[in-house]
Amino acid sequence: MHRLPTPTSNSIVCLFMTDHPSMTMSIYGRFPPLAALLALCLCSSALQLQALLTHPLQVNALQAIRRSLNDPVNNLKNWGKGDPCTSNWTGVVCFNTTGKDGFLHIQQLLLLNKNLSGTLSPKLGQLSFLEILDFMWNKISGTIPKELGNLKSLVLLLLNGNQLVGPLPEELGYLPKLDRLQIDENQISGPIPESFGNLRKIQHFHMNNNSISGQIPHALSRLPLLVHFLLDNNNLSGYLPPELYQLPQLQILQLDNNNFTGTIPDSYGNMSRLIKLSLRNCSLQGPIPDLSRISNLSYVDLSWNHLNGSIPTNKPSDNITTINLSNNDISGLIPANFSGLPHLQKLSLDHNALSGSVPSDIWRNRTFNATEKLLLDFQQNMLSNISGSLEPPTNVTISLRGNPVCSVANQPKITQFCGIQNGSEEILASSTIIPTYCHSQSCPDGYEYVPESPVPCFCAAPLRIGYRLKSPAFSNFIPYEDKFKVILASNLGINPYQLSIVSFIWERGPRLRLYFKLFPKYGNHSNKFNESEIHRIEGLFAEWKAGVGGIFGPYEFLNFILLSPYEEDVDLHISKSGLSKGAVAGIVLAAIAGAMTLSAIISIFTAKQYMKKYHMTLRKQSASKISIKIDGVKSFTFDEMMQATNNFSISSQVGQGGYGKVYKGVLADGTVVAIKRALESSLQGEREFFTEIELLSRLHHRNLVSLVGYCDDEIEQMLVYEFMPNGTLRDHLSGNDVKKPLSFAMRLQIALGSAKGILYLHAEADPPIFHRDIKASNILLDSRLTAKVADFGLSRLAPVPDVEGTVPGHVSTVVKGTPVNLAYQTGMMLSIIDGRMGSYPSECVAKFATLALKCCQDEPESRPAMTGVVRELENIWRMMPDTDIASSESMVSDERKRASSSPSSLLSSSLKNAYWSSDVSSSNLVSGVIPTITPRTCKMLPSDQKQAIPKIKFPFCVHLVSWEKENVSSEALEAARIACNKYMVKFAGKDSFHLRVRVHPFHVLRINKMLSCAGADRLQTGMRGAFGKPQGTCARVDIGQVLLSVRCKETNGNNAQEALRRAKFKFPGRQKIIVSRKWGFTKFSRTDYVVWRSENRILPDGVNAKLLGCHGPLARRQPGRAFLSATA
């Protein structure tokens, strides 16, 4: 333990200056350079002291972690006393991690089995040097904070044995050094993130005993170092990924008790290093794959499935110990390939349809020693005889109960195998090894005789260890006990006689729990371990360096118990910082030299810093005088922006322009945003900046990039926008092979969307805005390739236009196309047409090129107005063939899948309908007349051009149904709707489902409809309650009444059920989730719907459908068609 030096007079002066800011500011204001130099000289002792302190940011993080935890037994009583590293806070390990900043950094946080509760603080993400995070075997609840994804040095993440809930954060998939992920025995739900395929250093995936759902991502087959893959006892579904055989180092694949479908892939027979394959109770079907090519295979458990066919006849590996094929539908004979297996311990073929004889070669061609046992379980089959010898060795236990052979009266020797056998219980029962005691003398309290000591009756004080093998590849431990002791003792750096296994017991899984003792070495002039040796041994267990591996599989460190005489001398709750005296001296000398150099440098730049701080003070004073309310945008601090962009790292930078650099950031709520950070030359005045923010906050259009928030803090100005995952239009037109070439239909859609965005700026914005810099790099594309105009916020405000959008001439002559058709200068519309757009309708391209040339005329009067541009582009779009539109839909779907991090499939809605359903028609945008809201099928088109509703195929439907009579409030309904919608948008996509609220309390239905109209934000004024929602209203629902319904594709069925499961917690009482047999929201079954749709008898009717009758004259009947009347 290191003690802090007593503060000297210099450090006292530093403290005085810190505690008297008014006096310090007075000196600083009059003589800034001198004051800075004086402060550095007086604080030299403080700099020396700082070199032995933990980084302040990490100290604050530990304090926040402590506040989020409950410590009923006061294990963390020394947290808050002194410095975490130098005062040895419980579980905090630092070692020699002083970096260039001169501070100590926390490397390990070991809080195993401390009886802690509470939650995990997001501040854990600030321990940037952390390598081991261990909260095992506590009672911690809440979710796993996504901020753990900031721990880029993390090697071990150990959270098993707690009460954690919620989904796995996607950010965990970006930990480049993670070796072990243990979250087993919690209540984690949701799918496995696709990002976990990026964990290139991971060796151990332990996620068993949770509620993880969805499919196993195919991306996990790309993990080159994965050794143990444990996902048993979850809610996984779908097919087993055949690609898992590509895992080159995989030794254990344990997926028991899940809900898979399909067969066991034949490719699993190519897993060359596999030791254990356990797929028990997984609802698998089909034949048993041939696993004979796996030379190291020791354990196979395929029981409690629906496997059929016969048992493969190829001989399995000589290393095999356990084969369990019970409770399947296997038929045929028991093959002779089970004979001569030297290590076989258990062969379970019970509860199948096997026939024929039991081959006695299984035990006849085998030599047993005293510790080896063999259990043969053939119960409940159709076996008729035993071939060969009927007198197996005493080591062999055979069970034939429930077979026809047991009913044969003239074979008395067989009846001994037809009763209830206890062989399996013997193998799985606990075993206790009682050491031999010396009775000639007794040991002192706390000391014991070392059972296998080379010197008889050697008394020593043991260390007591709790240890568990999580997935052993054997059924009987005794034959492997000596091997286990030799390997473990070698890893611990002790002799095998120092390790004594006191007891072991088999647990469910099966898992093997062991309790053993470690004794000090004889001949060290001491009969107990010293303190450093105890910490060394505990560190090997806690850092997962005491594993045995191979057939023993992964282990769990359960406890490390110190009794007398250690409990008074050694405190395992204290973790040493590891700083030697030489290291301390070196740090102090380096700090003194650094202080002298730093004082010389800072004295030169103090004047400049003083001016900056002076301007900052004036700026903050000015800001306090500005009172402005900005609705719809959020104000961020500079610290929030730093955390969102990982301290504005180069890896987060996605672009740079005249205004400044653009970063990709992730906000605290997980929202991905684009952050524009202004250069010093681009900074505006406080009032001008807020005026622009207020203007941008009023602009809302689907083809404009939305403003999320802003930052005006510490002489920084930043704008926070929604993030566009598909980049710019220039990226897709530049010929870069990384981006898929856009079809002409897609390019036309982008042009139309850009035109509508510009028209909105000209005609709808108040005041109007002229962009002045429209180019392909300023047209951004979202996940659905929807065009969004960017950089309009930094443009000059336009004079108020007249009806046609024209402005005074001096503005129009500055930039060609301003403001009539600013979006379509040379290089914009013409650049859309090139040789990479594939096939295209010539008539549409010709009209598009004609329009582009009109937009490039020199005279403003010769160029079309933006209203005309939009109208002409809409006319060209209506001329497009349906096949081209379908291909553009496919492209959008592909882009959306690449941009999305969710493993679920996404459904793109009709592009053609999407662009016809803009807020209002272009002709009414500048007419001054309030437009009439029309259905999506009309959109101001003439009656002869009205389009049919597109047939969106959402066949899968799931309902949340009330299961008791209850009152449902409007607030509960809204909360449930938000929860369901949020989950579906995140994991399925906003256009891949429909959500209906089926219960509507008084006024809720009317107001919800109103909120969906254009201009609803203005119509809400004067409504009672917040945001137009009435308070306190409720509806009485009956048993079986549907509350919420979601329809989607089959691929998103699991997502829909999980979304409604989360929504269920917003209601009182009991509810059930029921999967409908109907087609979507219709009243027709899925089978009937498909048949009737093939007969053209289904007519879309909103969210429902109408069934046309079969009446009509026989003369009108067509082959394969229903009778349809002329009126229908």
UniProtKB/TrEMBL annotation:
TM region(s), chain numbering: 583-607
SUPFAM superfamilies per the UniProt record, alphabetical: L domain-like, Protein kinase-like (PK-like), Ribosomal protein L16p/L10e
Any coiled-coil ranges, and where? none
Write the Enzyme Commission number(s) for this entry: 2.7.11.1
Chain spans, region Disordered: 887-907
Molecular function GO labels: ATP binding; protein serine/threonine kinase activity; structural constituent of ribosome
Q: Which reaction does it catalyse?
A: L-threonyl-[protein] + ATP = O-phospho-L-threonyl-[protein] + ADP + H(+); L-seryl-[protein] + ATP = O-phospho-L-seryl-[protein] + ADP + H(+)
Domain of life (superkingdom): Eukaryota
Q: Where along this sequence does the record place binding of ATP? A: 676
Please list the GO biological process terms of this entry. response to UV-B; translation
Q: Which GO terms describe its cellular component?
A: membrane; ribonucleoprotein complex; ribosome
Localization, UniProt: Membrane
Which InterPro entries does UniProt cross-reference here? Kinase-like_dom_sf, Leu-rich_rpt, Leu-rich_rpt_typical-subtyp, LRR_dom_sf, LRR_N_plant-typ, Prot_kinase_dom, Protein_kinase_ATP_BS, Ribosomal_uL16
Q: According to its UniProt record, which protein family does this protein belong to?
A: Belongs to the protein kinase superfamily. Ser/Thr protein kinase family. Belongs to the universal ribosomal protein uL16 family.
Q: Which PANTHER family match?
A: OS01G0960400 PROTEIN (PTHR45974:SF134), RECEPTOR-LIKE PROTEIN 55 (PTHR45974)
Q: Which NCBIfam families does the protein's record reference?
A: PRK04199.1-4 (NF003239)
Self-association state and partner proteins as the record states? Component of the small ribosomal subunit. Mature ribosomes consist of a small (40S) and a large (60S) subunit. The 40S subunit contains about 33 different proteins and 1 molecule of RNA (18S). The 60S subunit contains about 49 different proteins and 3 molecules of RNA (25S, 5.8S and 5S).
This chain's protein is named non-specific serine/threonine protein kinase
Q: Which organism is it from?
A: Stephania yunnanensis
Taxonomy of origin reads: Eukaryota, Viridiplantae, Streptophyta, Embryophyta, Tracheophyta
